[in-house]
Amino acid sequence: MNPVAESAAVAAGANPLLPVHGAVPLSWYLILSAMLFMIGVVGVLVKRNPIVIFMSIELMLNAVNLSFIAFGRYLGNVGGQMFAIFVMAVAAAEVAVGLGILISIFRSRENINVDEINVMKG
Amino acid sequence: MLFLLFGGSALVTGITMVLFPNPVRSALFLVLNLFCVAVLYLLLNAYFLATVQVIVYAGAIMVLFLFVIMLLNLGTPDRSLDKLRWQQPAAVGIAVVLAALFGAVIYQSVPAGPPASAMMVEAPTLYAPRAEPNPMLTNQISDPNQLRAITPDTMGTVTGIGQSLYNPGEAWLFPFEATSILLLIAVIGSVVLAKRRLPGEDASAAGEREGGTG
Fold this sequence. Notes:
Chain A contains 4 helices and no strands. With 122 residues, chain A is mainly α. Among the domains of chain B are: 1-75, Four Helix Bundle (Hemerythrin (Met), subunit A) (Up-down Bundle); 150-195, no CATH class.
């Protein structure tokens, strides 16, 4: 954060309790979001446990939410936060169904390693 | 400063989440990561979403994860059983390629000019090269009929979110209703998937098991 820009904005009459608009550039949020997304991608590709793969997917969805909200804030548009709400709802539904599938697979096979699950291999 | 602190800790907890082989520790580090991202939402004035992030994600969804981990009694997996040994280095290579792609896109989207000063300017002036700034983007609409009731400062509060989400004049009401149907489908589907087999259904369950091992 740039203290010069912050103090300048406070002197210009902005509320000092609110985060100064533009003090942290938008590209920093985008870079952080991209890095979190990549950590999630690596987790999905590397992990063998489907639950941890789900958690990596959650990490990726969060990264996308972060860039949605950052864009919405910097463009002054409420659509970013709306999309983040819908992404959260879809993520909750996805987790519920996915964990249900995992429990069902575990009941029938006693093992949920993704290397061993080849029922749909054809 | 807060951005650097919580953004850095979000990255660190994300990396440790992927590196720990134990799923319970991964889940706990993901909770920490979600808290850090919630603080970043607060820095972006998205108060309602930060609250929802803590309550729904870190509260409900992660409890569901931990519950399933404990229910299935998963320990640390044995890496010697891995069938695809080349997968880890390949994943890291793909991640590096993806990082280069993201970096190129973000680098190109930063406006031209001296980078240090151009990155620090206030957001609406990012559109300075345009002859006429888009009034929807800069919130400088002179016609009061076009003026949105929600100013950016109240945008992230419960009031602002509700006024946008439930406003028939805006585009978010129909997706909201569609999301409710989606959640209903998810509830029914997960109950059907995870329910115990009844005694009369043993034949079909056994058939699934044979089909699975075959």
